[in-house]
Write a structure and sequence with these properties.
Blueprint (H helix, E strand, L loop, with lengths): L4 H10 L11 H9 L10 E5 L4 H14 L4 E4 L11 E3 L2 E2 L2 H15 L6 H15 L4 E5 L17 E4 L7 H4 L3 H8 L9 E3 L4 H14 L3 E3 L4 E6 L2 E6 L2 E6 L7 H15 L4 H10 L7 E2 L4 H6 L3 E4 L5 H13 L5 E5 L7 H5 L8 E4 L11 H10 L4 E3 L3 H11 L4 E5 L2 H11 L1
Helix pairs in contact: 1-4, 3-9, 3-10, 4-5, 7-8, 9-10
Amino acid sequence: MAMTPSDAILARLTQLHPKVIDLSLDRMHRILAALGHPERRIPPVIHIAGTNGKGSTLAMIRAGLESAGKSVHAYTSPHLAQFHERIRLRGELIAEPDLAAALAECEAANGGQPITFFEITTAAAFLVFSRVPADYTLLEVGLGGRLDATNVIDAPRLCVITPISIDHTQYLGETMAEIAGEKAGILKRRTPCIVGPQDPVARKVIETRAERLSAPLRIARQDWDSRREGDNLIFHDDRGLMDLPLPHLLGPHQIINAGTAIAALRELGFGRIEARAAVVEAEWPARMQRLTRGPLVAAAGNCELWLDGGHNPAGGAAIAATLTEMARKPTHLVCGMLNTKDVAGYMRPLASHVQSLTAVPIPDAEATLPPQATAEAAEGIGIPARIAPDTLAAVRSLAAETPHARILVCGSLYLAGEVLRDNG
C-alpha cells in the first residue's frame, strides 16, 4: 500500500516522543493553546474510561444515538487496519485530505517540541471535531484517565467508567485502588457518570471522588442492571424494565457493556428504540469477529476462523466465557502477544477451552514477545504449544491437521490489526 500524506506526517510525529515517558497534561495544554483551544468548541462530550469494554460500549452508545438521528463524532484508540479509524466525523471515518491537513496544522503548531504520538493526534482530533458540527462527541480514554490526553474537557455532558481491572501497572499503579484512582480522574464537578460493574475497592474509590465533586453516579447493580434471560437481554433501572434482543457483539461480557451503554443513553434522555439499536446495530471489529474473506480464510479451508484483540487477563476470561456459549468444537489458538502483557494471566482462563496454541510474532511491533516465550508460557499452564513463522503458516498447518475445527487468532490488537489489513 502506497504511503499517504497522513502516513508521512504520522511517521514524523513519532520522532517527537519525549525521551522519558511521563503522564502529564502540560504538553496537551501547550499545543491546544497554540491551536486556539479547539477542545473548548467541540460538540457535547461523552467521556469513556475503564480497563475493559470501552470500545464496545462506545460503539453501542454511538449506534443508539445515530438511530435517533443524532450526528456523532468519535475518537478511539488504537486503530487496527489504518489510523483513520481513530477519528469519526458525523459517523464516517475521517477523509485522508482532512486528516493530513489537521496533522500538518498540529505539527506546525507544536514547533518540533517533545510531544507523544497520542497527544498530538488527540489534538488533531479535537481540531477537526471543533470545525464540524455534530450533536455529540464520544471520547475514549487512551490510558488511565486522570492524566490522559483526552482529559482536557472541563465540562463533559456525561462520563462513563467501564469495569476496571489490573493493567498498565507501569503507568497506573500496582493496586486496584491506584488504578481506579487514575480512571476516576475523568470525573468532573456535577457531571453525571455511568459506572459499570466494579471490584468493591474500585467502586469505593470512584464513589469517594464523585462525592468530592458532587458528581451524580448511576452505578451498576445499584441504580441499573443488565442480564441475560434465555435469548433476551433484560435491562432495568428506576424508570422501568426493557426486554431487548441479545447484543450483536458476542460474549457474556457484552451484556455488561450493553447495560452500560443503555444506562448512558437513558441518562441522555433516550428510550427503548435507541436501546434496541445500541445492542443490535453496534459493530466493533476484532471482538470475537468471524472472518469471512481473505487469504487467511482461504487457508483455513473448512475451519471456522475467528479474531479477537483481547490481551489482558480480563480479555482472556471474556474469550473463555464466549467459547463456553458457542457450539462445542475443537478450538485452536494462534497467538501473538507483546512483552508488556501478563501472558500467563491472559492464557490461564483459556486453558480448559482449547486444544492447542500456535505462537507467532507480531509483525512490525517492537515489543512483540518472541514466539518461543509465548509457547513456553502456554505449556506452563497446560496448553500444548508450538511455533509458526507467521499467522498464515499457523492457520494453514492447523487446517491441514484439524479440518472443521475452530481457529482463533488472538492475543493482541496489533496482531488483529495486521490480520484485518490483510483480510479486511
